[in-house]
Amino acid sequence: MTEREIPEQYLDGYDRILAEVSTTGRRLTRDELQARRALGEQAAEAGHGLRALVSAHLTAARTAWPGTTGSAADALAAVQQVIDAFAEGYERAQRLAVRQEEAARREFIDDLLYGRSDLGRLAERAERFGLRLSQAHAVAVARGPAAYEEGDPVPRQVERALNSRFSDRSVLLTTKDGRLLCIAPGHQDEILTHFAKQAHAATDGGQVAIGRPQPGPGGVVQSYEEALGVLELAERLDLDAPVLRAADLLVYPVLTRDRQAMADLVTGTLGPLNTARGGADPLLDTLTAYFDCGCVAAEAARRLSLSVRALTYRLERIHKLTGANPADPAHRYMLQTAVIGARLLDWPVKAL
Questions:
Q1: How far is CA 221 from the centre of its chain?
Q2: Of 222, 214, 159, which is closest to residue 191 (Cα–Cα)?
Q3: Per DSSP, which regions of the chain are E strands?
Q4: Phi then psi dihedrals of residue 194, to 5 deg
Q5: Residue (of 190, 193, 179, 174) closest to 130 by Cα position
Q6: Distance CA 261, CA 341 (A)
Q7: Would strands 172-176 and 179-185 be described as parallel, antiparallel, or unpaired?
Q8: How far apart are CA 156 and CA 154, in angstroms?
């Protein structure tokens, strides 16, 4: 906006102040300063640029200068006071606008992720933030060693990386409960893949979970909850892959859908391990390592820092206590499913 486009209302009384101050040498009164601040706030709310406004004040001072009498130093001091007060009001209005925008954005994100708002109204608000909820969306959630808030260096770094590559896409990057979130159209998987890569690096090796694309206004919260479930699953099962996709882990929700049935399988199959010397934990760890490495005894022994002979003894002990042989394909599936269930249900730490 040029100087000539700045409305005269923002310079109201300015020439009178300059004339009086240059003649009397007085400083601006409290009321005059407050009036200048109020005009600055109004100019900011109207969308005028501060640079153009300052330029308009300087031009007005230069125009009024031939008609002023008295000290030039006093006149310049008055110009400085006016511009300082005006800029203070302008910046105050801008800070308030930023806070209001941040509050509106946070409220929208909370409503979006918790499904607390009317879906039709939510879809209307989403367009303001670049999302079209009539389409399917997927959510990626990244966690690191620290909790992150919007404006922190890590979220800013990831956001810059995404914007530099996908500036024309409908992407929303935010934080929630200390984690980084990326919401993207469901058919643009390359966005979430790039987010996962950048978030993993920015969080010093943090882990990222990606929910499946879900349709409609309620799809975002479904995909978000799926991603959170994957992170919880990774913690329980010690899954250390940097990126985990809900679509690749659907077997685990299926296994735990009937919690009582899974609990019965765990206690019925693995319960006898509690009678072993040292309890069930060492033998359960043995089964976990054995199954995780594809039932290769030498590799399982290496992971457990045991000799192959000691590992074999533990497997034989498990066979004797449970009646199921881990090396027998006929027994293996039941044992492995029970081991997974024990890890999901945090047995034997928690009684089932």
A1: 14
A2: 159
A3: 137-143, 172-176, 179-185, 207-210, 243-245
A4: -70, -40
A5: 174
A6: 10
A7: antiparallel
A8: 5
What b-and-e string marks burial along 247-265, b requiring 16 or more CB atoms within 10 Å of the CB?
eebeebeebbeeeeebbeb
Cα–Cα distance measured from residue 328 to residue 87, given in angstroms and rounded to the nearest whole number: 80
Q: d(Cα 155, Cα 144) in Å, to the nearest integer?
A: 11
pTM for this entry: 0.66
> Half-sphere exposure of residue 244, counting CA atoms within 13 Å on the CB side?
26
Distance separating alpha carbons of residues 79 and 17, to the nearest angstrom = 9
Could you list the pLDDT tens digit for every one of the 352 residues in the chain?
444 477 888 998 888 888 888 778 888 899 999 999 999 999 988 888 889 899 999 988 888 776 556 677 888 888 999 999 999 999 988 888 777 777 777 778 888 887 666 666 777 777 777 788 778 999 999 999 999 988 889 999 999 999 888 876 688 888 999 999 999 999 999 999 999 999 999 999 899 999 999 987 788 889 999 999 999 999 888 888 999 999 998 888 888 788 899 999 999 999 999 999 889 999 999 999 999 899 999 999 999 999 999 999 999 999 999 999 998 888 899 999 999 999 888 899 888 7
Q: Tell me how many degrees the CA angle 273-274-275 measures, rounded to the nearest 5.
A: 90
The SS3 call for residue 15 is: helix
DSSP string for residues in 77-126 = HHHHHHHHHHHHHHHHHHHHHHHHHHHHHHHHHHHHHHT-S-HHHHHHHH
Q: What is the largest CA-CA distance in the chain?
A: 108
